[in-house]
Specification:
Number of helices: 3
Strand order of the largest sheet: 3-4-5-7-6
Order of helices and strands: HHEEHEEEEE
Oligomer: single chain
Number of strands: 7
Largest sheet: 5 strands, mixed, barrel
CATH architecture of one domain: Beta Barrel
C-alpha cells in the first residue's frame, strides 16, 4: 500500500510535485488521479455520488446528466455494454451480443459534437454521450463516443445533435474507437 507513495515520491519529487502519504481509512487514488489536499473534507460514507453515466464535475459542481432517451434512437447505455479484454498481449473491446448485433445496421443517435477540425461546417466529428467541459479533454471513454461521417455538414453547436447512419462496431480500430457511423446524415429534431 505504501509502495505507490514511495514511487510517487521518487518520480514526482524531481519534477517539483509533492506526493502525499496515504491517509488512514482512505484508499489510494488510481494512477494519474489527483489527490485532494490533506485535511480536505471527504464525502461522508454512503453519500450519494454522481449516477452511472454522469460526468463527475470538478469542485463539487453538479454532475452532467446523460441526455434523456429520445424514442427511436440508440441508447448510450446500450453502447456502454462493452468490456476491455486482453487477447494475445493486446487489449480489445468485447461487445455484448446486443451491441454486436448492431454492426452494419442503420441507427439514429443523439449526442454532443466534438469537432475534429477547425472549420465552419463539420462533416467528420465525434458524437459524445456527454458535453465537453474542457477543450483539451474528451468527455468520456471510447464507449461514450462515436466517430461520425455525415453527407450534410453542420455548424458546431453546444446543443445535442441527432444523426442517422449505418453503425460499424469496431473490434480492432487503430485509433482506439469502438464505434463509427458512416454514410450518415444530421437529422432535424
Amino acid at each position: 500500500m505504501k509502495a505507490w507513495w514511495i514511487v510517487g515520491l521518487l518520480v514526482l519529487a524531481p519534477l517539483g510535485v509533492a506526493a502525499q502519504a496515504p491517509q488512514p481509512g482512505r484508499a489510494p487514488a488510481p494512477a494519474g488521479a489527483s489527490q485532494p489536499p490533506a485535511g480536505a473534507s471527504q464525502p461522508p460514507a454512503g453519500a450519494s455520488r454522481a449516477p452511472p453515466g454522469a460526468h463527475q464535475a470538478p469542485s463539487g459542481l453538479p454532475a452532467f446528466k446523460p441526455l434523456p432517451q429520445m424514442p427511436g434512437t440508440l441508447s448510450w447505455k446500450t453502447l456502454a455494454e462493452v468490456d476491455l479484454v486482453k487477447e494475445a498481449g493486446r487489449f480489445r473491446p468485447k461487445f455484448s451480443a446486443a451491441v454486436a448485433a448492431l454492426n452494419g445496421k442503420p441507427v439514429k443517435l443523439q449526442g454532443f459534437m466534438v469537432p475534429l477540425e477547425s472549420t465552419e461546417r463539420h462533416g467528420h466529428f465525434l458524437l459524445s454521450a456527454l458535453p465537453q467541459t474542457c477543450s483539451f479533454c474528451l468527455p468520456g471513454g471510447p464507449e461514450a463516443m462515436v466517430e461520425v461521417k455525415i453527407s450534410n455538414p453542420v455548424k458546431f453547436t453546444f446543443e445535442p445533435l441527432l444523426v442517422s447512419g449505418r453503425l460499424a462496431v469496431l473490434t480492432d480500430d487503430k485509433t482506439g474507437m469502438y464505434y463509427r457511423i458512416g454514410d450518415g446524415r444530421a437529422v432535424e429534431r
